[in-house]
Amino acid sequence: QVQLVESGGGLVQAGGSLKLSCAASGGTLTDYHMVWYRQAPGKEREFVARISRAGSNTNYADSVKGRFTISRDDAKNTVSLQMNNLTPEDTAVYYCAAIGTGYSGRGTQVTVSS
Questions:
Q1: Cα-based angle 52, 58, 64 (whole degrees, multiple of 5)
Q2: In this predicted model, what pLDDT tens digit does every residue of 89-111 receive, in sequence order?
Q3: What is the rounded distance in angstroms from the CA atom of residue 80 to the CA atom of residue 8?
């Protein structure tokens, strides 16, 4: 059973940056394509970014393209999301998940103040 734990969230002013991490235990993340998604209060879950098993392919939501970067560190068994130039619209709980499995973390809160 793979367990995923997100970290790195917090409160930041608009224009600031945060780096989220998703750490895995009980399994190897190289076995999975990984995704970050987010959910703001009162809104549906929203895809943010995706990275392939090998890390060679990435995809982003239009709303974060050019500002967010997804990456993976296989040695550390982690997947990260570097978020730059944050706006209040990025405020949400951010989750990582292994695509095609039921493995997902409990999320980390990101709050961007204006």
A1: 140
A2: 999 999 999 999 989 999 999 99
A3: 9
Of residues 92, 47, 96, 46, the one with CA closest to residue 71: 96
pLDDT digits (tens, 9 = 90+) for 66-76: 999 999 999 99
Is residue 48 within 8 Å of residue 61, measured between CB atoms?
A: yes
Residues 14-38 have pLDDT tens digits of: 999 999 999 999 989 888 999 999 9
Q: Write out the DSSP string of the chain.
A: --EEEEE--EEEETT--EEEEEEEESS-GGGS-EEEEEE-TTS--EEEEEE-TTS--EEE-TTTTTTEEEEEETTTTEEEEEE-S--GGG-EEEEEEETTSS-B---EEEEEE-
Residue owning tokens 């970290």: 7
